[in-house]
Specification:
The protein has one domain. Helix content is 55%, strand content 13%. The chain has eight helices and seven strands, in the order ββαααααβββαααββ. The protein has helices at 28-50, 56-61, 67-80, 87-96, 99-119, 151-176, 181-193, 195-207, and strands spanning 2-5, 21-22, 130-135, 140-145, 149-150, 213-217, 223-227.
């Protein structure tokens, strides 16, 4: 596995000829925007499925576990604010102290999400063709495979975080007959975090034959291509 900072690296050993067709779709931000509504509907459906295992009100009560930490950070910050400061500003500064905690949580989730993607790459993501990267200008992490894949493998890579983070916990809780509110919330939020994956799944299935091979091209003017 390689690590990369910046956009998806240039693919030097792949120049699509006439045998390759482009998978048509919007750009990165367009994809994320168009994916919001389907993801919200899908997340609502997942929440409905979880409600058979645990009442929705009990899902959110699971955050009682971390609330002491949150309150501790807010109280600590409040104690550092000058006594003569306007109350509203003081409260805002106290809440802003939670931002690092939120950023750490989002970064940890994003890393887990991309590691699940990359674990489904050929060779479990260990080969040098698997790239785990961060694109600072787009504020997104990514997992990229620099090679040709079967359509089935590519779709498995796309949906892996959705299945492993959202549905496997639900299945395990259903089998055991015990549900975790925290797992339920993470499962539902992961559906929203997988919005781009869900939309990409629809794009590919609607355009690419099941017997096709698929490959991405990194760098300037890159894209996703398929051929029979």
């Amino acid at each position: 596995m390689k690590f990369h900072i910046g956009g998806v690296p240039e693919t030097t050993d792949f120049r699509p000829d006439a045998s390759w067709r482009t998978v048509l779709g919007p750009g990165l931000w367009g994809l994320q925007l168009l994916a919001v509504l389907p993801a919200l509907i899908f997340a609502a459906a997942v929440a409905w499925l979880w409600s058979y295992l645990i009442p929705i009100k009990d899902m959110w009560s699971s955050f009682d576990v971390i609330m002491p930490v949150v309150r501790g950070i807010v109280n600590l910050t409040a104690g550092m604010v000058p006594a003569n400061m306007v109350p509203g500003v003081a409260s805002l500064l106290s809440l802003m102290a939670l931002f690092p905690l939120i950023i750490i949580a989002v970064a940890a989730y994003s890393l887990l999400h991309e590691l699940v993607h990359i674990s489904v790459h050929p060779g479990f993501g260990i080969s040098e063709r698997s790239i785990l990267g961060v694109w600072p200008s787009k504020m997104v992490p990514f997992a990229y495979y620099n090679g040709e894949l079967s359509l089935f493998r590519y779709l498995a890579i796309v949906v892996a975080p959705l299945i492993i983070i959202s549905f496997v916990p639900m299945l395990v809780c259903g089998i055991l007959g015990r549900a975790s509110g925290l797992l339920a919330v993470i499962s539902i939020l992961n559906v929203l975090g997988s919005s781009g994956d869900i939309f990409m799944l629809g794009l590919i299935i609607s355009q690419v034959p099941w017997s096709a091979k698929i490959r991405g091209q990194g760098g300037q003017g890159g894209g996703l291509f398929w051929r029979l």
